[in-house]
Amino acid sequence: MLESAKIARRQSEIRQSLATIVGKSEPTEEETRSMESLDSEYRLNETRYRAALITEDQEREEAKGELETRSEKEYAELVDKFELRQVALALDEGRTLDGPTAEVVEEMRSQGGYRGIPVPWLALERRAGETVASGTPDPITTRPIIDRLFPDSVAARMGAQMINIDSGAIEWPVVTSSVSAGWADGETANVAGPTAFATTDKALKPEQNLGIQMKITRKTMKQSGDALEQAVRRDMNSAIAKAMDAAIFLGTGSNGQPLGVITGQSTYGITATDAGALASWAALRAAVVRFMTANAAGSPSAVRGLIRPELWDYLDGAYIDTGTGITEWDRLLRNIPAANIAMTSNALAAPSGDPLETQALLTTNAGGVAPIFVGVWGGVDLIRDPYSDAQSGGLRLTALTTADVTVARPAQLELITGLELEAGS
Fold first, then answer.
1. Phi, psi of 44 (to 5 degrees)
2. What pLDDT, in 10s, does the model give residues 25-64?
3. Of 193, 284, 305, 318, which is most buried with the most CB atoms under 10 A?
4. Contact 415, 271 (CB under 8 A)
């Protein structure tokens, strides 16, 4: 607590004591002496209070913005010490939570309702000692919580922005107007007329709930703390990441699923082009050109691509000239960096039809606006099922989370269909 706050609290206590004594018509001798002592202390504290304010003001100036963000940093440090094994043991044995884990759970309960024990998203992140695509995170650095959750997820690699929402629905206004400029045709002529500045709200609503189940055996519960910690975090992380990736791109919009980007292509207004020919860099290049023509991308290197492994297999074997050994895949990588290409069998439907055809999705980040918004509400609600595995002494957990998907600007996405992987019969 700041010294000025301590002094101010003491001054309040002195005023209360003096008010009690002054209210008596005939104070005792001891009360009179106490009144003189309190009055002297009160006057001395006034001087100390002014000095404390001056000192603290100097400290604030030196610290600059640190004081305003200290609470967020302290909470991030607490979450970094969150122990999932405490949660598992609390659900299994009724053990009391303690330390940073108890503080984080109490804070999350005050922000929203949970049936079980709330778990912050950052707690599912794989910690030091495990392989992370972007390297081992530095716990001192404050980074966006949701972006760090799934470093290997397809959605993150395609530029999707994950947003943590406390409660209710949230809308993101996106500029949709086309502001034009024009020269005045003559000395007294007017310039181009005003164009209305219009925006469209992209809403994220808490209407879809994702649930995963975990079965922890009695043997696992008796393992050393760190082994259980890493196992729970790793399995829950991969299960949620896989389910989220599939929903973000292939969600049906029904049966409790959000509407995925590819499934809802027409609803979101995303341009879809049928290549209608053997897969090649030329078909992808045409989509990149459309991005650049629409000012959505400044260069091919700003484009991200989502493809199936089967498409990579075909392009890598399609030689432009057998003499040079250059393939269609080589031409693709000359323009779009390999880091911008995500291969998945989870977020794109398997090739089908005769001839066999596949799809590819291209995205770009325009003006700092992500092509896809993914909203998650609160943390992960971890609930115990005390009956399913009671006979074996195991622990069955259900992790619930609420999420939704929307597209910011349809012009930042392009779906290419009809990429043939074999010649027609």
1. -65, -40
2. 788 888 888 888 888 888 888 888 888 888 777 766 665 5
3. 284
4. yes
